[in-house]
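Priority: medium. Attachment 1 of 2:
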């Protein structure tokens, strides 16, 4: 009988702009070494100056040990990433975009002889209208579970109720449900009753003294004037935020979860 063992998953929140990329490039190797992470998943939809991601940046992420890059509503802001998404399925877009959208919403790979699945979904509250993430999510999970019980879900959504509902909806069916998109890390990391690790938002790998990654002055002016001023992503000192989960490799259940928020060295 095979001996049970655990896998360690590191999931990091939205990488934002040059400072976020720099923090990841400098900090991820040390973080992987310290946490002994086997699985590394990063949301990269804001990596290219805050809007989308490029093939060059994605390949740099992969060279660091990132196995899957998840995304959300901003993935479409760099058209040159679309052919790459079609070629390289480690770069995900939310699975509940309608049929015909470029790319895929899930990816399966192997670690230590075990298959790992990552599923990307997007919410609908205060977001563009898409197919139902709850129905699409369950259908996708049922297919993925035919290959592995170890399934990590990035739910890219604005609304806290929607995120918590998704966590409970998938509890016991997947290993982890993490929220992304708001760039503000929540302090509610936990293991749900049926063994699924959960956090409402991983936070942001990006500039610290900012408003969700952007210039505070511009954000304040937007509130005061109600003008649609374009955000400017800061290039300042940054932090890395996310979670580390310990997952039972046989059952796929999370047995430990820890929040991460670390200042970058530069």
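Attachment 2 of 2:
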């Amino acid at each position: 009988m095979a001996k049970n063992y655990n896998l360690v998953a590191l999931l990091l929140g939205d990488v934002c702009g040059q400072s976020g990329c720099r923090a990841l490039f400098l900090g991820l190797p040390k973080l992987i070494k310290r946490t002994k992470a086997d699985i590394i998943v990063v949301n990269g939809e804001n990596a290219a100056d805050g809007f989308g991601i490029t093939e060059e940046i994605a390949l740099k992420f992969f060279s660091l040990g990132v196995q899957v890059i998840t995304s959300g509503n901003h993935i479409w802001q760099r058209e040159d990433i679309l052919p790459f998404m079609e070629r390289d399925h480690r770069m995900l877009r939310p699975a509940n975009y309608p049929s015909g959208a470029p790319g895929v919403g899930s990816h399966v790979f192997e670690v230590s002889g075990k298959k790992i699945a990552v599923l990307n979904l997007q919410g609908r509250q205060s977001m563009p209208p898409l197919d139902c993430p709850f129905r699409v999510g369950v259908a996708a999970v049922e297919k993925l579970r035919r290959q592995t019980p170890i399934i990590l879900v990035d739910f890219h959504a604005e609304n806290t109720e929607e995120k918590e509902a998704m966590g409970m909806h998938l509890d016991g069916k997947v290993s982890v449900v993490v929220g992304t998109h708001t760039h503000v890390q929540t302090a509610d990391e936990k293991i749900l009753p049926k063994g699924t690790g959960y956090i409402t938002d991983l936070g942001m790998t990006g500039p610290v003294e900012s408003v969700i990654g952007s210039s505070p002055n511009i954000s304040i002016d937007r509130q005061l004037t109600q003008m649609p001023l374009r955000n400017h992503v800061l290039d300042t000192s940054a932090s890395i935020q996310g979670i580390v989960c310990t997952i039972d490799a046989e059952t796929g259940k999370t047995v430990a979860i820890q929040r991460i928020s670390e200042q970058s060295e530069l």
